[in-house]
Write a structure and sequence with these properties.
Elements (H helix, E strand, L loop, with lengths): L1 H16 L39 E6 L5 E4 L10 E5 L5 E10 L19 E6 L10 E5 H5 L2 E2 L3 E3 L6 H11 L3 E10 L3 E8 L5 E10 L2 E10 L19 E9 L2 E9 L3 E10 L2 E11 L4
Antiparallel strand pairs: 1-2, 1-6, 2-5, 3-4, 3-6, 4-5, 7-13, 8-9, 9-10, 10-11, 11-12, 13-14, 14-15, 15-16
């Protein structure tokens, strides 16, 4: 456990002290850099106060069978509250807390299926199904699910943003677009895109953009530009679409919500995003270290 804690502390420190180096991420820009609103001529475009319990949904990793899951977080108020996971088929399956397991000292930093036996933490077990062992596992409480509905129809989006949409995004953000990529289509709820902007005054920016009918919702990410690697080593300040994986999507009283994994060479950065006005607001995030020593 000690080695995992050291890795985690080092990762947090890197976020704030080493812009663009290694595989570190920049601090979440939400709050410091609020996305500019698109046309807000209706109540749908207005920001509201979001009430979200960050412990109501957690993330983990499983063994090769996808049956046993270890939570990424070392601190949970009550692990027995987590009763559901999302199966490899994208459905809800029962899960139960087994025990808090001790790690193998010095061998537990890599939080992956092929190092599962060495890792410690909160251990859960699936029944009536299993999770995809290659993906980040998603676990939820009954209260979380009572306030949301799981969206099961998530497909790859192949349709690119058209010229009108690209022009509208450039007008809203007051930046030229370098490139854009379709990510996923959530049937009936919109399509998610990745948009890289041209570097301005040594500042790099990319946005996750949800096209929901005639509305555009943004999750902006901003960092100091470093040609050696802004977001990841050797990325030239651009983010690639295969770095993102939608783990789950839900609808709630706020609108649409996403559990999203940003995959890096050394680890996964998992965010939970909630629709709020014309933004996708971060409700929580977690990180797991995946690189082999």
């Amino acid at each position: 456990m000690k080695s995992k804690l050291i890795i985690f502390i080092a990762f947090i420190a890197l976020q704030f002290t080493c812009l663009g180096c290694g595989d570190s991420l920049k601090p979440d820009s939400l709050g410091k850099y609020l996305p500019e609103s698109s046309e807000t001529n209706s109540d749908e475009g207005k920001l509201t106060e979001i009430s979200f319990d960050e412990y109501s949904i957690i993330f983990g990793f499983s063994d090769t069978n996808g049956r046993d899951i270890l939570a990424i977080s070392d601190t949970l108020p009550d692990p027995k509250l987590y009763t559901k996971a999302i199966s490899a088929e994208g459905k809800l399956i029962p899960v139960s807390f087994i025990q808090q397991r001790k790690a193998v000292e010095g061998k537990d930093a890599q939080q992956t299926y092929n190092n599962f036996s060495n890792c410690g933490g909160y251990l859960f077990r699936c029944s009536n199904g299993n999770v995809n062992y290659k993906n980040v596992a998603v676990l939820m409480t009954e209260k979380f699910l009572s306030e949301r509905k799981l969206i099961t129809n998530i497909l790859p989006e192949t349709k690119k943003l058209d010229a009108n949409a690209l022009n509208k995004i450039e007008s809203i953000k007051q930046r030229k677009i370098k490139n854009s990529f379709p990510l996923v289509k959530v049937d009936g709820y919109g399509s998610l895109y990745l948009v890289n902007f041209v570097v301005v005054n040594d500042t790099a920016m990319f946005s996750l953009v949800l096209m929901k009918g005639n509305r555009l919702l943004f999750k902006d990410n901003i960092a100091d530009y470093d040609p050696a690697g802004t977001w990841r080593v050797g990325d030239a300040g651009l983010v690639k679409p295969n770095a993102f994986q939608v783990l789950a999507a839900f609808t709630s009283k706020y609108g649409i919500e996403f559990a999203l994994n940003w995959i890096g060479a050394e680890g996964d950065y998992i965010e939970y995003l909630i629709e709020n006005g014309n933004t996708l607001q971060a409700g929580k995030n977690e990180y797991r270290y995946t690189a082999a020593f």
